[in-house]
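Subject: for your reference before the review

Hello V.,

The reviewers asked for a structural picture of the protein, and I figured it would be easier to keep everything in one thread rather than splitting it across files. Below is the amino acid sequence we used in the manuscript, unchanged from the supplementary table.
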Amino acid sequence: MIIRFLIILFILINTSSLAETYTEQYGEVEVSSSVFFDDVEGDDRKNTLNSSSLKYNFFFENNNLSGKLKINSAISDPEAAQDIDFNEAYLEYANNDLSYLVGNNIIFWGKNEFYNPVDIINSKNFSNGLAQGEKKGQTMVNVKRYFESSELNFFILPAATNTYPTSKVRPQLALDVDTTNTYADGGSKDNIGMAVRWSGYINEYDYGLSFYEGNTKDPALVLNSGKFVPKYSEITQLGLDLQATKGDTLYKSEVVYRENQYDYNGNIEDYTNLILGIEHNNYGILEKSWDLANIIEYSYDTRSTKSHHGYQNDLFLGARLVLNDIEDTQYFVSIQNDLDKNTRALTFNYESRFFSSLRAGIDIYHPLNLEDDNHQSSFKDESNIKFYTSYSF
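And here is what came back from the structure prediction:
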């Protein structure tokens, strides 16, 4: 109901001729194709995923009132679980050091590159496979208070759930995920969550201290009638993220303590999860304008292999090469190492701009030996390459 009202208001503002209202419209069309190299024995999932999407953004500002409407629509083969959404559709009113936002929005918390345990506000849309989850717009009331070098955010958050892929979309678990959601241990479809975050900087240090209480965004997947059924509990999470900038090197860390979360075995357990990282930047390498960032991060979970997310004792290595050319060309390669099972997965990305408004890129995912990995063994045959191109307007 709130989103319908906001859309009507955006349309009225967009068609008005008030000179004092600043408006901006922009968008993107993207076409992509993924090819999976290995068949999955015993099912009829397709070895390709072809999709096209249209993203339209409308922004307005009139004195203290502003707003944004972002519409994502997509067509894919195999058919996606969700083909249209309003990830950003909000109104925001600013008054001196306070601002008030109502509607759908995307919120990011955290500092690290590979994994962000403190990032808790948004659910995920896995329509394009379990390895490619994108944030879903969270309906919220967000009150923000600005200080000289920090800000305090307060959120009221109606319950939201993840969107899982349809049966023929890869990558996928061994069994399909049911579209029905269940709740237990304090969770419910009408549960109103809340969150608070205080963030800012002191000299070269950036920090964020956060608290969340509401439905988990990581439900247990309970086997029922040959399918996995998501089951949501109510969790409480306290988080801290820190970053120190020391010359050309960034030191990053995130840590959370969470209560009432389902673990890998479907049991409720409290836990602590942290990730530590270093990113060192080398500027002007090989006497060119190229910049190279080397990244190393380590994650740890007190539940060990019972962790629900799979980053319980993992080492991440990555390198990003930015050419700083007119085409904004960059390369990124990473490898994830599970130190408990000695398993690995490799990723590669290349992206560049062509003809000003046209971008294109390649993503490669290659599992090396995931057969014995408790959390990722379903992806052992999901080696794939994705080609994509987008046009901005």
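For the response letter, the relevant points are probably these. The helical segments are 2-15. The mean pLDDT is 93.

Happy to draft the paragraph if you're swamped.

O.
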